[in-house]
Amino acid sequence: MSKIVIAIDGYSSCGKSTTAKAVAARMGYGYIDTGAMYRAVSLFFTQEHVALSNPREVVSALENIHITFNFNQRTGRNETCLNGLNVEEEIRKMYISNIVSEVSAIPEVRRAMVAQQKKMGRRRGVVMDGRDIGTKVFPDAEVKVFMTADTYIRARRRQRELLEKGELVNLEDIIKNIEKRDLIDTTRAESPLVQAPDATLLDTSHMTIEEQVDWVIQQADQRI
Ligand code: C5P
């Protein structure tokens, strides 16, 4: 059976990653969380005090960043590693969410990440989630999904996720963060978040994760 690429793009906190991960597991495909890559870059830039407005500093910092995903047998989870260190927990914190859209709008950052993502998916058989997968990274993806959901519902989901990890964040702050990220992501000059003309829109406001997963798998089944 031929292997395909499944691109899941959309707004922040619509359930893209959870859905993508489960689809990949059910299909025996690899899963690549491209948002985690931009988060890891943001963490490195913060740690190294990189001036975001200085392209030379940005390019030289990017040369020292190596991002990998390790599958943890014990937890059954994919963990993001930055230069060999597990940063999975750190990159999900609010202080990273608050800067990641500015970092990911930098053209040099996008170029470096997109090149890596193309390489990671070159053998196909991957589910990749992000903001520009169907438009820029894999414009030839066989399945393209564009996810959206009501902002309040997204914020509640995000708040629950953060709480499960021990971080208590005010709902208003989460709504502000989601709206700010969506605005930067949709209006940036370099590959802004936009629905690819051949992507199917999925509003997850009133869907369970299981329903979302089944829906994507149905789309995939029609193209294999
Ligand atoms: O998917 P997640 O919400 O973790 O992504 C964090 C941020 O990374 C997004 O808000 C967006 O600014 C950026 N991003 C991006 N392109 C991608 C994936 C994420 O610009 N392909």
From TrEMBL:
It is found in: Cytoplasm. GO terms for cellular component: cytoplasm. Keywords: ATP-binding, Cytoplasm, Kinase, Nucleotide-binding, Transferase. The keyword Ribosomal protein does not apply. InterPro entries: Cytidylate_kin, Cytidylate_kinase_dom, P-loop_NTPase. The gene is cmk. This is Cytidylate kinase. One of its GO terms (molecular function) is ATP binding. Residues 6-221 form the Cytidylate kinase domain. Pfam families: Cytidylate_kin. ATP binds at residues 10-18. Its EC number is 2.7.4.25. It catalyses: dCMP + ATP = dCDP + ADP; CMP + ATP = CDP + ADP. One of its GO terms (biological process) is pyrimidine nucleotide metabolic process. Belongs to the cytidylate kinase family. Type 1 subfamily.
